[in-house]
Amino acid sequence: MLNRESAKKGGGKLARSETVTVRLDPKLRYLAELAARKQRRTLSSFIEWAIEQSLEKVAIQHPKKGERSNLSQLGDTLWDVGPQERFLKLALKAPELLNYKEERMWKFIDEWKALWDVDEKDRRYIRRDLLRSLWNDFEQYGEEEITDEDLEKKVGAYFRSTGLPSESMVIRLQPKYIDGDI
Q: Which of 166, 86, 104 is nearest to 155 (CA)?
């Protein structure tokens, strides 16, 4: 038996949902409401469904393989609950979708040897612990709130505090985008 207080509150919220404010012109809103009625959905449920359907039409090209897929197919590949991992997955799997802030962060990470471990086969692995520890600083760098030098000092302090070998703290590498053909 429900008490009056819980009956007034309505249905439960899903913990994974987020509220988004969307501006629709009156005609589009009316048509969306009609479509929602037809499918026996709420307007918000219809909009969520419509977005899911439209993700199949957003084409993405794999940066190394050249294969094309859509955003719906890449959803599980790109998603992670942690913002650092989400950022890395986006930068590695769909760099064309990076915004300016993320491009700045990725350029910094991609070019700085200190942020990578390299194995005997020359494969690079990001130092995820460093990225997690300095994530707020990387975001500030992306927003142009701190400079290269500020972030370099923070990376150096991280290395000193964790006892990582100083020879792995070579900060600047020649950027990968510079080659003899340009």
A: 166
**Residue 56 burial by CB count (10 A; 0-12/13-18/19+): exposed, middle or buried?**
exposed
DSSP 145: S
Ramachandran sector of residue 123 (left: φ over 0; alpha: ψ -120 to 50; beta: rest)? beta
Give strand pairing partners of 106: none
Q: Indicate the pLDDT class of residue 116, thresholds 50, 70 and 90.
A: confident
Distance CA 152, CA 158 (A): 10
Residue 157 CA to residue 159 CA, distance in Å, equals: 5
Q: What is the pLDDT of residues 73-92, one digit of tens each?
A: 999 999 999 999 999 999 98
- Are the CB atoms for 74 and 93 separated by under 8 Å? yes
Which amino acid does the sequence have at 49?
A: W
What are the Cα distances from residue 83, in Å, to 41, 91, 138, 139? 32, 12, 12, 11
Compute the distance between CA of residue 9 and CA of residue 19 in angstroms, rounded to an integer: 17
Pairing of strands 59-61, 116-118: unpaired
- pTM for the structure as a whole: 0.74
Cα distances from 81 to residues 49, 71, 126, 174, in angstroms, run 22, 18, 18, 33
- Specify whether the CB–CB gap between 138 and 132 falls below 8 A: no
